[in-house]
Amino acid sequence: MVHALKEAGYHPVVLDNLSTGRKSLVLDAELVVADIADKITLNALFKTYKFSAVMHFAGFIRVGESVEEPAKYYQNNLAYSLNLLDVMLDHKVKNLIFSSSAAVYGDPEYTPIDTKHPKNPINPYGQSKWMFEQILSDYDKAYDLKSVSLRYFNAAGADPLGRLGEWHDPETHLIPLVLQVASGRLDDIKIFGKDYPTKDGTCIRDYIHICDLCQAHLLALEALLKGGDSAAYNLGNGNGYSVLEVIEAAEKVTGKKIKVQFSPRRAGDPAVLVADAKEAEKKLGWKPKFADLKTIISHAWAWEQKLMTCRGVA
Question: Which of 125, 152, 207, 233 is catalytic?
């Protein structure tokens, strides 16, 4: 996102506590190492710069962990996020792009899921995202703080130029884990559940390239800066792939056999999540550029191979 903003002529300043991030991946952008829990630092930052907008990515995102440790998720994703809104209002910054999630919908009543679908989160992670979206709606009415909530389905892929990609510790996302098996970093990939009501018994997800996500953020930012209203959009390709289909595609891309180990279902995992993103296409003019699953995996595979040559870099 930082690269996309800079290429579009903006001057982004990154605030990150580095609890899950890495300083080296910010590359040449300006970085402030701090937490949104720290209102003193937030206030100082907003005094130093005259921001036109804020993009809020600072959320914990692991569904299973949210079921086991809900306090962690409500504290950071909700309570600390209110600090950010308070400081924004104090400094008259009234444009926010929020990283929301398909998890706000819970178990889908129909697919593909449009933005009118009932919101019924089935885990604390999704609940925290939906609660914050409702807070943003109230802040719009009361304080004229405009926001665009972008409900990601499954972010995947990597920078096509190989500069950036997923690098989590521990890694929990399917595609990078599958590719770690292909590269020899892992012995096998664990599949959580093989008895879902899907064509092969494994979960189906809608995978969207990270660069397409960034493009949607840019378009949402431009809409707000032009005086646009608050909104919420789904971001996905509209195509669902099962876990086994992702593994099969990864085997074709890498030329490697990927060993599978089946495990019990995880708490809080819906069987199918596929997006209807027509609203984002219609109102933002957004259209995914890298919709093909093999392309997404190919970019992620190039990044995994690069990681193998620079392991241990902080």
Answer: 125
